[in-house]
């Protein structure tokens, strides 16, 4: 995967993450709603950073799909979706790390992978999943 | 969410060793395969190509060598710290064993990606977090977990810095280690 493809893939996944958090947030309780809102904002910032990187490279900046296949009917499903979202986001950001030598993209992608792993772990813990962490975030 | 194709659990960088073999290896490709060259390099037999008088062998250079060695030392130090706490405070086993196992995976992943296997250096290698000091309060579970959390945070930051400087071959693994250890620090 080259740098352009990795950036485009990361952008697509951040669009999905923003959509997913918009849906799942409504199913969370007071304890988990606040971190979900923070995650929603964090993914918007990462999306904006990706859009800027793509524009700088004169690459296409596709917007989100009109909708995504996201079904959430319970708090349990909301937490499971949040874990899936962060896992997938981590994979895409790890791809960026390995597809670029640009220090600015490394400085963007490495913390993005770290943040997604931290959020995934917190969502697993909130869901009562053990272990809450994984050895190699970003590998699926 | 749209389904995505399953992804391999380890870096599928076929041919990723190419960069460690500088073009100085002008050996007859029929007589000396790349595997032979790698094996020779691993044994330090860098004089394998000296039969041609005009050829001067150059040691194989791993651009990530120092970063790789330091990362191995960090993981060895973390494993030692967990083992120390688990020995002195067995009541923490349920809480710490899974995290300790993930560090063992980190170490194995780093070793698997090493171009030429070499023994893990002592945890005292520069860049490695210091082992948990042997003090009387280290049997206090809360204090022990706090120290491990601090070690995880420090190691995550160092892995992240190393990932920023590493080649495309090593950087994704170091970034994953940084991410894993950030998550350990968040939930320990």
List the helices and strands and how they pair.
The complex is a heterodimer of chains A (140) and B (188).
Chain A: H1 3-24, H2 30-56, H3 75-99, H4 103-127
Chain B: H1 34-43, H2 65-88, H3 93-112, H4 141-165, H5 171-187
Helix pairs in contact in B: 2-3, 2-4, 3-5, 4-5
Structural account:
By secondary structure, chain A is mainly α. Chain A has one domain: Up-down Bundle (Ferritin), CATH 1.20.1260. Chain A has helices at residues 3-24, 30-56, 75-99, 103-127. In chain A, helix 2 packs antiparallel against helix 4. The mean pLDDT of chain A is 97. Chain B is an all-alpha fold and 188 residues long. Chain B folds into two domains: 20-61, no CATH class; 65-187, Ferritin, CATH 1.20.1260. In chain B, 51% of the residues lie in helices and 0% in strands. Chain B is built from five helices and no strands. Chain B has helices spanning 34-43, 65-88, 93-112, 141-165, 171-187. Chain B is elongated and about 60 Å long. In chain B, 34% of the residues are buried. At the A-B interface, helix 3 and helix 4 of A face helix 3, helix 4 and helix 5 of B.
Distance, first to last CA of chain B: 30 Å
Q: Count up the domains of chain A.
A: 1
CATH topology of chain A: Ferritin
Order of helices and strands of chain B: HHHHH
Tally of individual domains of chain B: 2
Largest sheet of chain B: none
Order of helices and strands of chain A: HHHH
The interface involving the most residues is between:
A-B, 45 and 37 residues
